[in-house]
Amino acid sequence: MIQTDILIIGAGPCGLFTVFEAGLLKLRCHLIDALPQPGGQCSEIYPKKPIYDIPAYPSILAGELVDRLMEQAEPFCPGFTLGERAEQIEKDAEGQFILTTNRGTQHRAPVIAIAGGLGCFEPRKPPVPQLADFEDKGVEYIIKDPEFYRDKKVVISGGGDSALDWTIFLAEGVASEVTLVHRRKEFRGHLDSVQKVMDLAASGRINLMTDAEVVEVAGQNQLESLAIKTKDGEVHTVPTDHWVPLFGLSPKLGPIADWNLNITKNAVEVNTLDYSTNVPGVYAIGDINTYPGKLKLILCGFHEATLMVQSAFKRIYPDKNLVLKYTTVNGVNGFEG
Amino acid sequence: MEDNMIRVSVTDREGNVHDLDAPTDMGMNMMELCKSAELPVEGTCGGMAMCASCHMYVKSSHEIPPKSDDEEDMLDEAFFVEDNSRLGCQIHLSNDLNGLKVELAPVGN
User: Fold this and answer.
1) Is B69's CB within 8 Å of A127's CB?
2) What is the DSSP letter of A5?
3) What band does A304 get if pLDDT is binned at 50, 70 and 90?
4) What's the CATH architecture for A125-247?
C-alpha cells in the first residue's frame, strides 16, 4: 500500500505543480496517471507545440513545460503510479481514502486531488459492429508484448507511427503474416518508416492495403477473419488471428464518473473557495473541474492547485496554523528522500 | 446581415438543423462556433488539428482552403471519413462562407 498526504489523479501540468505547492507546506504527494509518462495532454497530444500564455514565458514548448514542472517538483520527491487508471475509491476506518487502480495497485491518503484534465486517454475504437465481442479474443488496441504475435497472422490498421513501427517490427521475423490497412495512400509517420513499409510491401513481406478500411469482424468465439472494404467498393475477406486497430488515443472521463461527485457536462463541480467537491476530502483542479466563469487554461489550474493545497493542509492538520511563507524569503526546502 | 456577420447551418447527429450567426472578425473557426452554441463538438485539443473530435462534413459547395497535412493526418484517426470530411477547427469563418452548411460526423466509442 502506497501512503501519501495528497493523492493526485492525473500527472499533467496541474498535478505536477500541486506537488510543488504541497511540498512548500511539507505535504507529500503521489501521482497516478493512465498514461505511461507524466505531462498529460502536453506530452501526449502536443509536446512540440508552443504555449504562449504561461506568465514570464513568451513561448514555451508543451513538452518543455512538463520537463520544467518535473524539475520544480523534484525536491519534493513525488511518487508515481504510471500507466494505471484510478479505478475505485473507498474510505477506511480511519477516514483515509483507499484508491485502487485498474491493475490493483492500492494507495492510501487523507486527501485526493483530481487533476484529471480531459479524463483518461484510451484507445480510439473503430465503429465496427460486434467489435467488443472480440476484444482480447483477437482484437487488441495496444501491443504490449510482441511475442504474443509470434507465428500468427496479424492485421494492423492505422496510418501513424505506431501502425508503421509495429508493422515493420512484426514483419521482421515475428508474425507469420502481416497486413497493414490504411484509409488512404499517404502515411503520416516518419519518412524512413514509410519507406521501409513500402519496401516490405514491394518485396511481398507484408500485405499493404491502402484506400481501405476494416468493416467487419468475424469468428466463432475467437477472431478468424476481417472484411476489408476498399475505396472501389469491393469487400475482401482476410483470414487473421489478430487485428490491432491503432487510431490513437482519446480522452474519456472514465471511472471518476462513478465516484458520487457532482458532475456537469463531463466536469466535476467545485467550490471556488478551495476547489473542493461535494465529497469531503476530494478536490478537483484544472480542466476537469467546472464553476461559474471557469476557463480551461494551465495558468488557471496552477492557481487552483495553490489554493487547494492550503485547504488540504487544514483538513490534514486541523490544529495547525498555516502561515504563507514566500519562497524568496525561505527558499525551497525539499524532502530528504 | 450586418458587416462581418455570416449565417451558417449545422446539422447535428440527430438530424436537427441549427442556424448560427457567426462573427467573421473574431478569428473564430467552426469548432469554436459549434462549442459556443453548445453543440456536441468536443474540440479536445483546442483547435490545433491534433485530435479529431471536431470532424464534420461540408455539405455546401463553398470553397474552403484545402486541408493541410496536419489535418489530413488527423483525419486518419477519425472514423466515418468521407471525401467532404473536415476538422471544424480548420474551417476559419470568413465572409465568403456565408450560407455554409455542415453536418457533424458521427462519433465512435
Assistant:
1) no
2) S
3) very high
4) 3-Layer(bba) Sandwich (3.50)
> Which residue is it, cell 510543488?
A20
Burial class of residue A273 (count of CB atoms within 10 Å of its CB; 0-12, 13-18, 19+): exposed
Superfamily name with CATH number, domain B5-104: Beta-grasp domain (3.10.20.30)
Q: Which value does ipTM take for this structure?
A: 0.81
Any idea which fold A2-122+250-330 has?
FAD/NAD(P)-binding domain (3.50.50)
Q: Evaluate whether A80 touches A73 at the Cβ level (below 8 Å).
A: no
pLDDT at B1 over 80: no
At B2 the pLDDT is 67
| Chain A residues close to B109, C-beta within 8 Å | 125, 127, 131
Phi and psi torsions of A255, nearest 5°: -60, -25
Total-model pTM: 0.81
Percentage of the residues of chain A whose pLDDT score is greater than 70: 100
Contact B76 A41 (CB under 8 A): no
Please provide residue B94's backbone torsions phi and psi, each rounded to the nearest 5 degrees.
-140, 165
**Best CA proximity match to A225, nearest among A208, A247, A242:** A242
Distance from C-alpha of A92 to C-alpha of A141, rounded to nearest angstrom: 36
